[in-house]
Amino acid sequence: MNIDDIVVSKLIFDRFAEKFKDSMEVDVAIAGAGPAGLTAARYLAKAGKKVVIFERKLSPGGGMWGGGMTFPTIIVQEQSKDILEETGIKIRDEGEGYY
Question: Do 13 and 60 lie in a common domain?
Fold first, then answer.
């Protein structure tokens, strides 16, 4: 089976263009899917707003993926605890308001 690169490229572009056009009819557009952007989007959506997040990378999370000095672990403060629990993310109390 031969693959026509031009046909495939056009199809990819067409699907992207459809999604992009749909994302223009929103209440709030957020730049970046890091911790702040994801949190803002969640609360705005819960408040009934139509939200879109634009992220330049292929994955959400911003700098969280690096952890401390590229270790695969992050530490968050007390203010984040409720959000993490609501979304089912496992947390461990490290004391002094850190998780």
Answer: yes
Give how far Cα 68 sits from Cα of 37, 51, 91, Å.
20, 30, 17
* Exposure class string for 2-37: b at 16+ Cβ within 10 A, else e: eeeeeeeeeeeeeeeeeeeeeeeeeeeebebbbbeb
Q: How many domains does the chain have?
A: 2
Residue pLDDT tens, the chain, 99 long: 788 999 999 999 999 999 889 888 899 999 999 889 999 999 999 999 999 999 988 878 776 666 666 677 778 888 888 888 888 888 899 999 999
Range of the domain at 51: 5-65
Whether 26 and 39 map to the same domain: the answer is: yes
Report pTM: 0.61
